[in-house]
Design brief:
- The chain has two domains: about 1-145, Up-down Bundle (Four Helix Bundle (Hemerythrin (Met), subunit A)), CATH 1.20.120; about 150-370, Rossmann fold, CATH 3.40.50.
- The protein has about 375 residues and is of the alpha/beta class.
- Strands 6-5-4-7-10-13-14 form a seven-stranded mixed β-sheet. The protein has a four-stranded mixed β-sheet with strand order 11-8-9-12, with helices on one face. Strands 1-2-3 form a three-stranded antiparallel β-sheet.
- Helices cover about 40% and strands about 15% of the residues.
- The chain is built from twelve helices and 14 strands.
- Helix 2 runs antiparallel to helix 3.
- It binds 5-S-methyl-1-O-phosphono-5-thio-D-ribulose (MRU).
- 5-S-methyl-1-O-phosphono-5-thio-D-ribulose binds next to helix 3 and strand 9.
- 5-S-methyl-1-O-phosphono-5-thio-D-ribulose binds near residues 56, 103 and 176.
- Its main location: cytoplasm.
Length: about 375
């Protein structure tokens, strides 16, 4: 499994060895150090997600699933019944979901894993069989994510290349990090950029710094340089000027939770980029797997936005470095914002592009029903 992931994504995000050992690449140390944290159980997984050692909506879902897989794989002895195994796994999953609230991929993964557990319990009389079913399901999630991202990349690239500019290469602005480091590999919005580049049609990728945690300057810039993709880093506050100079053909971002009408929660600053793009007549796309869609929410107003520590804003290096803000100032540090559907030109998924059909909102439920037939 380790070799498979390393081969697919150039650098290994999850070094997972069939339930025996599991380490995650420390996002907080990049780009200066490539080091791993050992994750032995759900408690380690919870902390890695909460402290943003692993971050990005798809990555945190997989990180959580694998942390529990490795815990049950390495259980010395489990004396309980199959019912005890079910309640053990379900409680751990609920605990893992509590690590970060906004990305729906985590709760979606937990819900699907609970279904696997319940189905296994219907036929198994021993706890071990339920644990085994859980481990296999978690491993499938890890494997499926890369394939899903490649499908997003391929749909996104063919759509952009045909619809936007037939004759010219594209310059694309992206925000935060949505690449191999935010998924099991390849990425969503950054996956589309990778695919456009692979087609020979990318002029340049612009990545925002993404204050206050700097996922853009630390992680997206790292991935773009690693893959030799022509790239320019800009301060978040330079994006409007860049658009006004005519240097951006499209904006593509990821998503943490997409409501049924297409309103999209993503890294703080996404909403400002969408407003700027609208003002400059630049198409603004969201690239996300269908696991990022929350059909239970009719609009983005219902999305819970995570607020993070003041220190991430007042100190450098995500709160670990030196103080840069005046002591005593009050701080508001939301990790995400919601971009309303009317500012979004299309949503690129692994099943194709969701469009609005001359309306202000998307009908994602209809799309999901159509593609699941
Ligand atoms: O706080 P983070 O770094 O987890 O936020 C990440 C983002 O907002 C990403 O754009 C989103 O999760 C999509 S990752 C494919």
């Amino acid at each position: 499994m380790w070799e498979w992931i390393a081969q697919e994504t150039q650098y290994c995000i999850f070094a997972y060895n069939l339930g025996r050992t599991y380490s995650a690449l420390k996002n907080r140390k990049l780009p200066l150090e490539t080091t791993y944290v050992d994750i032995r159980n759900a408690t380690d997984g919870w902390s890695a997600i909460r402290d943003m050692v692993v971050r990005g909506a798809p990555a945190i879902a997989i990180a959580a699933a694998l942390s529990l897989a490795v815990e049950v794989s390495n259980l010395e002895a489990f004396e309980g019944t199959s019912d005890d195994a079910v309640s053990f796994l379900n409680k751990k999953l609920e605990y893992l979901v509590s690590s970060r609230p906004t990305a729906v991929n985590l709760s979606d993964a937990a819900m699907k894993l609970k279904e696997v557990i319940s189905n296994a319990a219907a036929t198994a009389s021993e706890a071990q069989s339920i644990f085994q079913a859980y481990i296999e399901a978690a491993e499938i999630m890890l494997r499926d994510d890369v394939a899903c991202n490649k499908a997003i990349g391929s749909y996104g690239a063919s759509f952009l290349c045909h619809q936007l500019k037939n004759s010219k290469s594209l310059s694309i602005l992206t925000h935060c990090n949505t690449g191999s480091l935010a998924t099991a590999g390849y990425g969503t919005a950054l996956g589309v950029i990778r695919a456009v580049h692979a087609e020979g049609l990318l002029e340049r990728a612009y990545c925002t710094e993404t204050r206050p945690f700097n996922q853009g300057s630390r992680l997206t810039a790292f991935e773009l340089v690693h893959d030799n993709i022509p790239a320019t880093l800009v301060a978040d506050s330079a994006a409007a000027a860049l658009m006004r100079e005519g240097r951006v053909d499209a904006v593509i971002v990821g998503a943490d939770r997409v409501a049924a009408n297409g309103d999209t929660a993503n890294k703080i600053g996404t909403y400002s980029l969408a407003l700027c793009a609208m003002n400059h007549n630049i198409p603004f796309y969201v690239a996300a797997p269908l696991t990022s869609v929350d059909l239970s929410l009719s609009s983005g107003q219902e999305i819970v936005i995570e607020e993070r520590s003041q220190k991430e804003l007042t100190h450098t290096r995500g709160g670990l470095g030196e103080q840069v803000a005046a002591s005593g100032v009050s701080v508001w540090n939301p990790a995400f914002d919601v971009t309303p559907a009317n500012l979004i030109s299309g949503i690129i998924t692994e099943k194709g592009l969701v469009t609005k059909m001359n309306s202000d909102a998307f009908k994602i439920k209809d799309f999901v029903e159509k593609v699941s037939k």
